[in-house]
């Protein structure tokens, strides 16, 4: 049997932990009767894309991103629209695409998925020709991505802290949307997210019903909400119920044109970037080959520690909110204490 070629592109600085042990774990657990492997290390931003593109040109069978969402995006961009498949060993702080695909969050388990070698053709999207695989967005969505990138530390609590604190002063914008060539409609929105996969990362689900194989992108519009509703929105993101929120409008589309009054931030897979007033988001159906978990349809990921905690606090928050709704001063103090308790 002819062996397949697999290249592992390792980002040594992604996420929060050391990557020194990863090469030995890969060597220990990869099926060497099935694969010839190469280990390649990134040295600067954009290097993973360059390596992946070269691997694609050399007809490498599978290119594995070993890192976080940024590394995955770079490697995936390098292999789109080709026969080379993307593999993932999640080592970042969010791991959005890996979590959506229900891949193991440990190196041994992720390597075993590669050993299984099941490859599916999945969708991806572009925003102004920038490929994305999980989500892209604007408004508060992109604002938080920039804050998160500038925070100097990673992790879910950094994300939640920014959402709760910055959300209280963020001004909504009006977006004019043209969906699949139909009439243009204006929407005043706190954020506008377009999802190919279901979550941002850290099991924060902005589009719980999104699929990477249905031939559609999920457009999520969050209408403005007041400061008292912010903690509940965060809880619903973690509990996969944000699509039930009355402030959320969602629909499916393949081609989205957006006009806004002024230039500003956008993000693609959490990577912030400046963009102009006109944005064009497109679906690319079955445009990327991805190594997937053969058991993903048979298993559901257990709630992580944060999801479990938020689930337990969801009822307490609603009770607390009802108790203080008739007393604005008490309500403000209670919400403030609630937010501080979450951040601690």
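Q: What amino acid sequence fits the structure above?
A:
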């Amino acid at each position: 049997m002819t062996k397949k070629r697999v290249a592992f592109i390792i980002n040594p600085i992604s996420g929060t932990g050391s990557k020194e042990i990863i090469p030995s774990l890969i060597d220990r657990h990869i099926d060497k009767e099935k694969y010839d492997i190469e280990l390649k290390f990134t040295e600067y931003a954009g290097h993973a894309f360059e390596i992946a593109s070269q691997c694609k040109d050399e007809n490498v069978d599978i290119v594995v991103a070993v890192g976080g969402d940024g590394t995955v995006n770079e490697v995936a961009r390098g292999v789109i629209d080709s026969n080379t498949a993307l593999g993932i060993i999640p080592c970042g702080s969010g791991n959005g695409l890996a979590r959506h695909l229900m891949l193991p969050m440990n190196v041994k388990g992720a390597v075993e998925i590669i050993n299984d070698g099941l490859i599916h053709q999945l969708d991806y999207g572009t925003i102004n020709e920038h490929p994305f695989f999980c989500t892209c967005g604007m408004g508060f969505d992109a604002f938080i991505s920039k804050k998160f990138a500038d925070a100097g530390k990673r992790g879910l609590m950094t994300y939640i802290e920014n959402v709760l604190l910055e959300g209280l002063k963020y001004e909504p914008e009006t977006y004019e949307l043209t969906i699949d060539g139909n009439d243009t409609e204006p929407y005043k929105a706190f954020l506008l997210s377009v999802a190919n996969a279901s979550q941002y990362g850290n099991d924060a689900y902005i589009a719980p019903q999104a699929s990477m194989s249905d031939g559609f992108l999920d457009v999520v519009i969050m209408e403005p909400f007041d400061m008292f509703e912010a903690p509940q929105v965060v809880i619903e993101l973690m509990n996969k119920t944000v699509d039930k929120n009355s402030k959320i409008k969602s629909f499916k589309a393949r081609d989205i044109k957006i006009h806004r009054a002024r230039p500003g931030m956008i993000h693609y897979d959490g990577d912030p970037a400046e963009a102009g007033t006109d944005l064009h988001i497109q679906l690319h159906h079955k445009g990327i080959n991805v190594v997937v978990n053969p058991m993903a349809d048979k298993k559901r990921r257990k709630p992580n520690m944060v999801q479990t905690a938020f689930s337990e606090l969801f009822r307490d928050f609603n009770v607390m909110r009802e108790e203080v709704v008739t007393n604005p001063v008490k309500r403000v103090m209670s919400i403030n204490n609630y937010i501080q308790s979450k951040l601690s």
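Q: And what stands out in the fold?
A: Residues 303-326 have pLDDT under 50 and may be disordered.
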